[in-house]
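ARCHIVE CARD
Drawer: 12
Card no.: 0347
Subject: one protein chain, sequence and derived structure
Cross-reference: see card 0346
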Amino acid sequence: MMVLISYDVSTSDEKGKKRLRKVAKECQNHAQRVQNSVFEADLDYSAFMKLKNKLLSIIDEEKDSLRLYYLGNNWEHRIEHIGAKNTYNPEGVLII
């Protein structure tokens, strides 16, 4: 299932900067960054729920924002990319 994850973490204090780094790192571990605070994750439901719960444990719901867009399994027809940055194929070959 493809999920789009976006976040806005308040960085007005040191705790916020730490939360921002943790959220970004957790997203990078499970998803592909497509813009500064936007990630695409192609995960099974169990892996997605683990990621979601981890992100919820990091953010401060009174100061931060986390948005999850569920694109499902037929996501190819729901994403259109226009612009200079190259896109990627989440189902293509992964080189580590």
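Annotation on reverse: The two ends are 22 Å apart (CA to CA). The chain has a mean pLDDT of 86.
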